[in-house]
Amino acid sequence: MTSSSTPRMHTYKRTSSPRSPPNAGELFTPAHEENVRFIHDTWLCVLRDIKSPQNSERNDRGPQEYVEKNPNPNLHSFIPVDLSDLKKRNTQDSKKS
């Protein structure tokens, strides 16, 4: 392997964006930021396609929502947690202290 084909890791301080909270102590590569952006944007497209009325017309194509055939009875009272909201509340609580 030559030095020109060796992958190089460049770290930089992440700039704040609406998708990720700023944390000056964290370092990310440009490739990491690109991957996060790609996954985020693709997930938004999947959510849009699932909610689209045209989705019901195409059974074998496009995203399909998974539904348990035999749901676990222990999870019937499970309530999902909004992690963004929880983090906001924790951040506000720490500022009050």
From TrEMBL:
- Is this entry keyworded Nucleus? yes
> Pfam families from the xrefs?
FAM195
Record's keyword annotation contains Nucleus: yes
Q: Which domain of life is it from?
A: Eukaryota
Give me the stretches of Basic and acidic residues compositional bias: 57-68, 84-97
Protein keywords: Cytoplasm, Nucleus
GO CC terms for this protein?
cytoplasmic stress granule; nucleus
- Residue ranges under compositional bias (Polar residues)? 1-18
Q: Where is this region: Disordered?
A: 1-28, 52-97
Annotated compartments: Cytoplasm, Stress granule; Nucleus
Q: Name the protein family.
A: Belongs to the MCRIP family.
The name this protein carries in UniProt is Mapk-regulated corepressor-interacting protein 1
The organism that produces this protein has a lineage beginning with: Eukaryota, Metazoa, Chordata, Craniata, Vertebrata
Q: Which gene encodes it?
A: LOC113052818
